[in-house]
């Protein structure tokens, strides 16, 4: 791959998906795109890039974008966000939403579905507190391929061993040969949509909680800021935003502030300010 071809590909990926490739990632590009070159009978990476430059081949564009976006996920990943969900977010929402008795959660960049299903398990485990409540979990991702896997809820032994306690595996999954499938009741708790975070998501409506973990790290500063500002519009003032351990809002937006003592958990600026007075429940300001 020539330097000019690599520069074109960097620009193409940033425009189409927001992914920012550093100059030391050429080896990664070659390893992920060579199989596409072979399967598309284009033979070389140069031929793939020339086809992209000509435009009009949406199928190839999609293949390249999906090959270059990272889709690793596992159940209860990093544990801390799910602790925050159980001990902070859910109690607060059960209190503040007691009249309407509905909670809506969006998992952006949901990948192969482990995060939304982990939240579904949390809600099932809290069922004793939630009689008569309605819940909606939406999982979105740029890749249709990973969404199709997520919809099936079918995982290998290796995948269910990563973060999923054995008692929850036996309680919520059924063995299918050498695979495990989350049961139909759990699958029915989650809906799936293909979505590019660079595009408008106002049509999704408002959510009480947004999980947007381990995706902003792939964007440049201006794209991060723009996405965070738009995420703020999907949340009410007392809604929650959950980011990855290596992600922050600091220096990117004034719309959110950290929830004190809760790593990776953020609320709208108005809600955090209220936490210092008398209008916010004390448990939200640790």
From TrEMBL:
One of its GO terms (biological process) is methylation. The keyword rRNA-binding does not apply. It comes from the Bacteria. Transmembrane segments: none annotated. Its EC number is 2.1.1.80. Gene3D superfamilies: Chemotaxis receptor methyltransferase CheR, N-terminal domain (1.10.155.10), Vaccinia Virus protein VP39 (3.40.50.150). Keywords: Methyltransferase, S-adenosyl-L-methionine, Transferase. It is an enzyme of class 2 (transferase). Residues 1-267 form the CheR-type methyltransferase domain. This is protein-glutamate O-methyltransferase. It comes from Roseibium aggregatum.
């Amino acid at each position: 791959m020539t330097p000019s071809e690599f520069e074109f590909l960097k620009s193409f990926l940033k425009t189409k998906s927001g992914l920012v490739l550093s100059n030391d990632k050429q080896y990664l590009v070659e390893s992920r795109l060579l199989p596409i070159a072979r399967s598309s009978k284009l033979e070389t990476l140069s031929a793939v890039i020339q086809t992209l430059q000509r435009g009009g081949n949406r199928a190839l564009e999609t293949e390249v974008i999906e090959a270059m976006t990272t889709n690793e996920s596992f159940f209860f990943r990093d544990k801390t966000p799910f602790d925050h969900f159980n001990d902070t977010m859910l109690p607060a929402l059960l209190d503040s939403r007691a009249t309407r008795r509905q909670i809506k959660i969006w998992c952006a960049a949901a990948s192969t579905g482990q995060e939304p299903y982990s939240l579904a398990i949390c809600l099932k485990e809290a069922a004793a507190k939630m009689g008569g409540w309605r819940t909606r979990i939406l999982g979105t991702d740029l890749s249709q391929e990973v969404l199709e896997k997520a919809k099936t809820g079918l995982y290998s032994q290796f995948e269910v061993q990563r973060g999923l306690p054995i008692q929850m595996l036996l309680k919520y999954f059924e063995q299918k040969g050498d695979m495990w499938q989350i049961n139909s009741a759990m699958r029915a708790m989650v809906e799936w949509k293909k979505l590019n975070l660079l595009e408008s998501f106002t049509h999704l409506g408002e959510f009480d909680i947004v999980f947007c973990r381990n995706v902003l790290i792939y964007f440049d500063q201006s794209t991060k800021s723009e996405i965070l500002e738009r995420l703020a519009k999907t949340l009410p003032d007392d809604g929650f935003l959950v980011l990855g351990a290596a992600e922050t809002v600091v220096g990117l937006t004034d719309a959110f502030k950290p929830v004190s003592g809760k790593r990776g958990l953020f609320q709208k600026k108005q809600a955090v300010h209220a936490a210092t007075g008398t209008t916010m429940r004390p448990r939200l300001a640790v």
